[in-house]
Specification:
Elements (H helix, E strand, L loop, with lengths): L1 E5 L3 H12 L3 E5 L16 E2 L12 H8 L7 E3 L4 H13 L3 H29 L10 E5 L2 H14 L7 E3 L1 H7 L12 E5 L3 E2 L2 H14 L3 E3 L4 E7 L2 E7 L2 E4 L2 E4 L5 H7 L6 E12 L11 E3 L4 E6 L2 E10 L8 H14 L1 H8 L4 E10 L5 E4 L5 E5 L5 H17 L18
Parallel strand pairs: 1-2, 1-13, 2-9, 4-17, 5-15, 13-20
Antiparallel strand pairs: 3-8, 5-7, 6-7, 10-11, 11-12, 14-17, 14-18, 15-16, 16-17, 19-20
The structure holds flavin-adenine dinucleotide (FAD).
């Protein structure tokens, strides 16, 4: 089959890879001049099935109100955005009941565990390197209540294959000695041994090169303006360089998926949630952790990627504005330096690279995968804060659906039709 993939982010490139492996004739259309230039560019680098909970946890509404308009908060809702959030925002809150949160956590966890298994297979099959590390991930806590909540989620995910061990402060520091400088702050940690880390952009770029070797045609600097349907069926994509007809199309356009699908009459309730990252050279920092660390209270993650350190965090409801606000970026660095004081000193002596990106977040948490109401149009969209973790799983599932195979995981809660009820 001739298939067009829209977008060369981590989801689009993994889609192209699996589709080409199935023997399809694949063209990837990307508006940037190379792969991985948008949200997959400088994310937190965490491959964490352990972090599968959607962000609309019970109680999120109080947290949002508490931090409303506060520029230094980890979760920022600008009052001016409230009217624009309208339908999506109400849906986001509606999905924050305990029952739905637990259902969506389970859907995400199954997908994430499946995805990490596929990533390991892909590594074995191709030898791809992306500053990866398989040291697990350590979540640290400053309050017992927060740790209890995380333990509840970890217990939910354990039967789905997310192993964890609970650590007191002494055990936490014994596992990761770099946390000695924060020992007095901690009430404990949870270690997830099967999680991994790696640079999503390096992976995307290198997998795109491998896919091109396999015959995938990458058309860069080409924007898709709209999808053309004929008799309600997908027929072609209209691009800045003219129409490209195909038998099928996989929409992996990150934050533009909603607009493109919407113009074809397919509703994708996805909203961009802004985040920041900071990248510093590793050399010169006296105390880097060997294990990637998530500070639950500060909502910041820290991981070593090859010879660099990547910090990421903050969630901001600011519409499609992906501009870099120095103050918000500095918040990420300050939060990380709260846990690792020596990192603050290190940052003063080097030039950190700041980046802002938009997480394509669905209203309920899980991504939107597989068939759409338009025959020939398939969806690989809305991975939110977990797109790097989910990438191989999402894209394999979509390739399965196109091939008419049963995906290895249940599709309940992942398909677009959940929004048609
Ligand atoms: C601060 C931050 C930290 C994060 N940390 C993590 C983490 O630690 N672990 C994790 O699992 N996830 C993390 N994420 C989430 C993850 O980065 C995203 O979910 C993932 O990168 C999304 O990939 P994508 O391929 O869907 O989108 P993108 O990478 O945005 O790719 C979409 C591509 O489509 C192209 N495109 C869009 N519209 C068009 C069009 N009309 N025509 C042609 N091309 C088009 C874009 O140019 C882009 O290249 C983080 C995100 C942020 C912002």
């Amino acid at each position: 089959m001739r298939i067009i993939v829209i977008g060369a982010g981590v989801l689009g490139v993994t889609s192209a890879w699996y589709l080409a492996r199935d023997g399809h004739d694949v063209t990837v259309v990307e508006r940037a001049s190379r792969p991985g230039e948008e949200t997959s560019f400088a994310n937190g680098g965490m491959l964490h099935a352990s972090h599968a909970e959607p962000w609309n946890a019970p109680g999120v509404v109080w947290q949002l109100l508490r931090w409303l308009g506060r520029e230094d908060s980890p979760l920022l809702l600008r009052p001016g955005q409230i009217p624009r959030l309208a339908g999506w925002g109400l849906g986001f809150l509606r999905n924050s009941t305990r029952k739905r949160f637990e259902q969506h956590t389970a859907v995400n966890a199954s997908l994430a565990v499946y995805s990490l298994g596929l990533l390991r297979d892909l590594r074995r099959e191709t030898g791809i390197r992306y500053d990866e590390a398989g040291n697990g991930i350590l979540k640290v806590f400053h309050e017992h209540e927060a740790m209890d909540k995380a333990l509840h989620a970890s217990h939910l995910m354990a039967p789905l294959g997310v192993r964890h061990s609970v650590l007191d402060p002494r055990q936490t520091v014994a596992l990761e000695p770099a946390l000695e400088e924060a020992r007095h702050q901690l009430v404990g940690g949870i270690y997830y041994p099967d999680d991994e880390s790696g640079d999503a952009r390096l992976f995307t770029e290198r997998l795109a090169a491998l896919a091109a070797d396999r015959g995938v045609d990458f058309r860069y600097a080409t924007a898709v303006e709209q999808l053309r349907l004929d008799g309600g069926r997908f027929q072609a994509v209209e691009t800045s360089s003219g129409p490209l007809p195909a038998d099928a199309c996989v929409l992996a356009a990150g934050n533009d998926a909603r607009r493109l699908a919407g113009r074809a009459g397919v509703r994708l309730p996805i909203y961009p949630v802004k985040g920041y990252s900071v990248t510093l050279p590793l050399q010169g920092w006296s105390n880097p952790p060997a294990i990637p660390v998530i500070d639950d209270a500060r909502k910041v993650v820290l991981t070593v990627l090859g010879d660099r350190v990547r910090l990421a965090g903050t969630a901001e409801f600011a519409g499609y504005d992906s501009s870099l606000q120095t103050r918000r970026a500095a918040t990420v660095l300050r939060q990380a330096a709260g846990l690792f004081p020596s990192l603050g000193e290190h940052a003063d002596g080097c030039e950190p690279a700041y980046w802002a990106g938009l997480r394509p977040m669905t209203v309920d948490g899980p991504p939107i995968l597989g068939a759409s109401p338009v025959p020939g149009l398939y969806l690989n969209a809305g991975p939110g804060h977990l797109g790097w973790t989910f990438a191989c799983g999402c894209s394999h599932v979509v390739a399965d659906v196109i091939a008419g195979r049963d995906p290895a995981i249940a599709m309940d809660g992942l398909e677009q039709r959940r929004f048609q009820r």
